[in-house]
Design brief:
CATH architecture of chain A: 3-Layer(aba) Sandwich
Strand content of chain B: under 5%
Number of domains of chain A: 1
Shape of chain A: globular
Order of helices and strands of chain A: EEEHEEHEHHHEHEHEEHH
Low-confidence stretches of chain B: none
Number of strands of chain B: 0
Mean pLDDT of chain B: 90
Helix content of chain A: 25-40%
Largest sheet of chain A: 6 strands, mixed
Oligomer: heterodimer
Shape of chain B: globular
Mean pLDDT of chain A: 88
CATH topology of chain A: Rossmann fold
Largest interface: A-B, 20 and 13 residues
Number of helices of chain B: 8
Strand content of chain A: 25-35%
Strand order of the largest sheet of chain A: 6-7-8-3-9-10
Radius of gyration of chain A: 18 Å
Chain lengths: ~240, ~270
């Protein structure tokens, strides 16, 4: 379970998070929505331990992430995957080498087994045909799928998705959303998804939280959110400026 | 009131610049220490190290040799005119050999490596930083010093002395051309002077050569560390990458000059025989 309790964070001259409290139970996809600059990605980076809060707790399986020593944090991260906006693949490695990287660098898994696991996760995301290609030779959507395969190769308990549909066309976006739902359903992975997209929330979210003013302004299932009378929720989900 | 606010702003800006400079220096030193600690992992990075060394050699070789050749010719021309006036033209070979091996060879090679290979390293790592690839490594518990810096630092630390040795030879050869065609010195006189000046100490490797090579090793390590560190600290998109490259080249050139002086002082003043 992931829990954030009264998390505060100031970056530069701005208070980004102001008492953010949120709980993500195991096995669900939690969609964190909000306008640009409200601290969605900052929240993800707190969960993975890239950022430390000025105040408050960030707990993963009851362990306070900011208080972990470097080695303990590395151990925790082995149980977590992170999908970056553009996949963040290393450009001089092939897709297969990129996906194999976490196992090659952090485990003593035999090369044959690594190769099997690479094929397995690439097949899961429908990218086994691109195993020998370089990131520069594949499209944005394919890079995201490969990034997801890399996040999944260590069989993580949690995957954090940072804008998984940014810059993608609606068809590819829908494919990515289905993939995120499949990861939850087939692998039992808990997901924290940061997005602006209502479609993403509807396609793969179990619970939705709307971030505003540095804290969760509204939370519920997608149906509850769609039925909400709250002005902020309605304007955000409908996309109307007023 | 406005004037005093302006002064305070200026002081604050200067303070931030100093703070940033100290942080950058600290980051580079820490990175160098992390690279040294990661050295036992070098066999694992061997392929990429060799690729980096080859790329560094290919990028810099042509320019380094052309610049060294012409630097040797200029040096021969400038000193040769004065030496001829004093009737000491036969010393030209000694002067060329000592200048190239002690200072000019490592200096020329260092500057060219900073401008070509160092800038490329800063741009490459900087682009990785601003596109979250370095953060991705961190998230995967992969040490960026081990994965990114180690092969590049080792590659340039090996290639800089190799290129310097070549630059020394080509520079001395450039001097030979000018000495023959413009100063009327025979090839035999020139090359005998070169050999005598470099083998004066009768050691396996003459001091003038090994100090120059040592300088090149230090320059290679400094350029690569500063360049990778600048790239790792890049932020703010394409503009940030541009700034990282500019910073890497500027600091590398400053370090080449400063470290060059320190090593010369160390070997020819503090440890002189």
């Amino acid at each position: 379970m992931i829990e954030l309790k009264d998390v505060h964070k100031r970056l530069g001259n701005r208070d980004i998070l102001q008492g953010l409290t949120l709980t993500i139970p195991d096995g669900v996809n939690y969609v964190l929505m909000g306008r640009s600059g409200t601290g969605k990605s900052v929240t993800l980076r707190h969960v993975i331990g890239i950022l430390k809060p000025d105040r408050g707790q960030v707990l993963v399986d009851g362990v306070d992430v900011p208080k972990l020593a470097r080695r303990e944090l590395q151990e925790l991260r082995k149980r977590m995957g992170y999908l970056f906006q553009n996949g963040a693949l290393i450009n001089w490695l092939t897709v297969g080498q990129n996906v194999a990287l976490p196992l090659q660098e952090n485990t003593k898994t035999p090369p044959d087994e690594i190769q099997d696991r690479v094929v397995e996760v690439l097949r899961l995301v429908g990218m086994e045909h691109a195993i020998a290609q370089y990131p520069s030779d594949i499209s944005g959507g394919m890079k995201l799928r490969c990034g997801l395969a890399r996040a999944l190769i260590t069989r993580p308990a949690y995957v954090l998705y940072d804008e998984p549909n940014a810059g993608l066309d609606p068809i590819i976006s829908t494919q990515i959303h289905r993939l995120i739902a499949d990861v939850r359903d087939q692998l039992g992975v808990t997901g924290l998804i940061v997005t602006h997209s209502r479609h993403c929330a509807m396609d793969c979210g179990d619970r939705v939280g709307l971030l505003d003013g540095g804290r969760i302004a509204s939370e519920g299932t997608i149906d509850e959110m769609l039925a909400s009378e709250d002005e902020l929720v309605r304007s955000f989900l409908s996309g109307h400026a007023d | 009131m406005t004037q005093s606010t302006g002064i305070l702003d200026a002081i604050a800006r200067r303070g931030r610049t100093i703070d940033e400079t100290i942080r950058a220096a600290g980051f580079s030193i820490r990175l160098m220490i992390r690279v040294i600690v990661a050295l036992p992992y070098l066999p694992r990075r061997m392929r990429f190290t060799l690729d980096s060394a080859y790329a560094a050699g290919v990028r810099a070789l042509g320019v380094a040799l052309i610049v060294a050749f012409f630097a040797g010719m200029i040096l021969a021309l400038q000193t040769g005119i004065e030496l001829r006036r004093l009737g000491q033209s036969n010393l030209i070979g000694s002067i060329l050999a000592l200048s190239m091996c002690r200072e000019m060879g490592p200096f020329i090679t260092g500057i060219i490596l900073a401008a070509t290979v160092g800038s490329a390293m800063a741009a490459e790592i900087g682009t990785m930083s601003v596109s979250d690839e370095v953060t991705a490594l961190d998230v995967m518990s992969i040490d960026s010093a081990n994965f990114l810096a180690l092969p590049r630092v080792v590659a340039l630390t090996l290639m800089c002395p190799l290129l310097t040795a070549l630059a020394d030879m080509v520079g001395i050869a450039g001097g030979a051309v000018v000495s023959h065609f413009h100063l009327g010195i025979t090839q035999q006189t020139y090359w005998v002077a070169v050999r005598e000046s470099l083998t004066e100490t009768a050691r396996l490797l003459p001091k003038d050569v090994y100090v120059g090579i040592f300088k090149a090793v230090v320059f290679g390590a400094a350029i690569s560390t500063v360049s990778v560190a600048s790239g790792l600290r890049a932020s703010g998109g394409a503009l940030g990458v541009g700034r990282a490259v500019q910073r890497a080249v500027m600091v590398s050139i400053l370090l080449i000059i400063i470290l060059g002086y320190v090593i010369t002082w160390l070997f020819y003043f503090l440890l002189r025989e």
